[in-house]
């Protein structure tokens, strides 16, 4: 019995770390997939389609495709909730994005997570801001405000509509995953 208790005491922290890492990766993948789906819908329908983010209760966020860019979700639009341990974080919570900026040619990043809003994709899949094709690089930070020791994820949306996922430990630096 003593051996079993000792093995359990050793295994639990490792299992918790693995579980928290999985939650962060899952949330980043879901944000990335929702952005890709919205971009695909814009191209498929040959019209503008919006990716929408709305704050929910507590630290939860509702993200998804707003097919008519009405700034509200309807019952038939694809949406999902990001909640629990992994949440969308505002700017300044995650480590400095300087490594990401450097990898992207020194570009400045605009944080979209932690704010209600939308991103518009045109019929070609490019990002539009104010009716014009945008050259802005958007970043969505994902992590835990209560347990930063598990690290952070960043979903990067470049002007062409391509998406990257980055990871960083609590103190940085960022490294590209995909």
Short overview:
The chain is α+β, with helices and mostly antiparallel strands and 178 residues long. It is built from two helices and twelve strands.
CATH class: Alpha Beta
User: Domains counted in the coordinates: how many?
Assistant: 1
The secondary-structure class comes to: alpha+beta
Beginning-to-end CA distance, first to last residue: 44 Å
The CATH superfamily bears the name minor pseudopilin epsh domain
* Average of per-residue pLDDT values: 90
Instruction: Please give the number of β-strands.
Output: 12
Beta-strand fraction estimate: 25-35%
Shape: globular
Continuous helix count: 2
Q: Any idea what the radius of gyration is?
A: 18 Å
Name the helix and strand elements from N-terminus to C-terminus, one letter apiece: HEEEEHEEEEEEEE
Residues in helices, as a percent range: 25-40%
Poorly predicted sequence stretches spanning 5 or more consecutive residues: none
CATH fold-level assignment: minor pseudopilin epsh fold
